[in-house]
Specification:
single chain; hydrolase; 148 residues; NUDIX_hydrolase_dom; NUDIX_hydrolase-like_dom_sf; NUDIX_hydrolase_CS; 3 helices; globular; 7 strands
Amino acid sequence: MRQPFQILVIPFIKNETNYQFCALLRTDVAVWQFVTGGGEDGESILETAKRESKEELNLKGEFEMYKLDSYSTIPSFHFSFSKPYVVPEYCFAIDLTSFSGYIELSIEHRELKWLSYESVIRLLEWDSNKTALYELNERLKNDDMQPI
């Protein structure tokens, strides 16, 4: 059963000169965003973030995950809930720099792009994605990342 919370996960990699972030184009509403999804049954927020990352990117290996401070709420009409009226969205990031596997999109997305901060922020539809990206970019610039 769907739990009344949402997660957002930003995949990123470090190349020789900067960081790049993975934006996904949704199949159903044609908007660019990061990995998103909701908790199932008794999943914790962290378990949901890991599962959604693996499902939406078809990840088969291990990766570093980080909790972000960014937090937002989404009106419940975007989901099948009548109450609560807003659903909390918890934000995370995953480092795929050393990931040796292949990324294959789920049916939820039709395209992905690895882009710089300046490029990806212009693509994103939702303010919550932009805020979380800003936080992640600042943390990366300041070497302020602690894996969970």
